Amino acid sequence: MSDIIVIGGGPSGITAAIKAKNKNNNVILLEKNSSPLKKLLLTGNGKCNYFNEVFSTKNYHSNNIDIVNKIISDKNLNSVKDFFDELGVIPKIKNGYYYPFSNQAITIKNVLLHEAESKGIEIICNSEVLDIEKKDKFIIKCFDKEYTCDKLIVSMGSKAYPKTGSDGLGYSLLEKLGHSIIKPLPALVQLTSDFKYLKEIDGVRTDVYMELFEDNKYLDSEVGELQFTNYGISGICTFNLSNYVTRGLDEGRKEVIKINLVPFIETLITPWLDNYSKKNSNKNLTELLEGFLNYKLVNMLIKVSDLKGNSYYKDLTNEEKLRLCHNLRSLEIPITGTKSYDSAQICNGGIPLSEINYQTMESNIIEGLYIIGELLDMNGNCGGYNLTTCWISGLLAGKDIGEDND
Ligand SMILES: Cc1cc2nc3c(=O)[nH]c(=O)nc-3n(C[C@H](O)[C@H](O)[C@H](O)COP(=O)(O)OP(=O)(O)OC[C@H]3O[C@@H](n4cnc5c(N)ncnc54)[C@H](O)[C@@H]3O)c2cc1C
After folding, report:
1. Residues 181-191: what's their mean pLDDT?
2. Mean pLDDT (whole number) for 193-215
């Protein structure tokens, strides 16, 4: 009988444990919380966007995107679908985004725990691992107990959202075992700004096209809903761009978001506005802009363009018209930082993919050690991409162990 230990009962760890268990091994999962899968319950606003079948490297961030490409293969994506099919989860699928049909994250938690229990996996909660040593076997040290095992799966999560249990200790324990770490930074997170008018537009949600410029060079763009807050910007588009911003700011680059507040205007904006103002010639500037923008944005735009709300568009100088059009089309929001790990959905960075075997998730540095889930430098955008990598890496590691001496 071989002994397998999994540290961390998140989505990746539970999946790996389920797949690793066979009749010739003992699988123990150590979880520091009183119950596993605490973070999973928060995902997708409690509905759990657990998978995305539409893979594009554009949705991932890593220092080794070639390996991401190999890990998120069609074969591995299909194995996730098969896994949930076997667990009896009926999905609700919208544009490739998977949710449980129940619309409840707890459905996914319950099926996983039920499967783990029925396979005879021992889940030991309230067991915080403090240290790992590798001699002949792995020695896992908790506060009042030590465990030994032949194979070890580390699935302790990142530093994001520490109140769910993942506080970043996994990185230091793996570093001690010889792995290197690409500095983890908060990602899928709100961005802060010193834009002067934020307090006035706090709470406004609006559909935009937004572009990220790093050191004045275009980097990426997003289309969707943006939320202005009193500290900066939020919303899914912001979260996705935060994956670049967090690294750029940490490495001293200048990050600016340019917002097109009128994405519905498909032609050049100046003739469009000339034409629109002629049709609405009895309206002053405030009244004119309120025809298509939130009133808080109108007041901010008039101020940021240095105009007067009671003036008329036809009376503006060419320079004033250009200023207004520029701010409508390309409002500049300088980014000063990100919110902290406490509100970040994931971490950007982690264990370099070059240090693991991408087919099995086994460490290239220590035999018998497997690293999975968000600990890896393989970070996705919003849309189920992060859980997708957790299931895939968990399945790969578990399968490698489970089929070893079956
Ligand atoms: C609010 C929020 C919403 C999200 N929504 C989505 C979504 O809809 N779709 C999506 O794809 N992704 C989403 N994510 C991201 C996704 O939840 C994570 O990427 C995923 O949970 C990571 O799984 P993991 O198994 O690597 O780690 P985790 O889920 O963080 O699990 C790690 C486990 O290890 C345990 N642990 C840590 N240290 C120790 C220790 N020393 N000893 C013992 N146990 C330990 C922790 O308690 C925890 O249970 C969301 C994240 C958040 C915070």
Report:
1. 98
2. 98
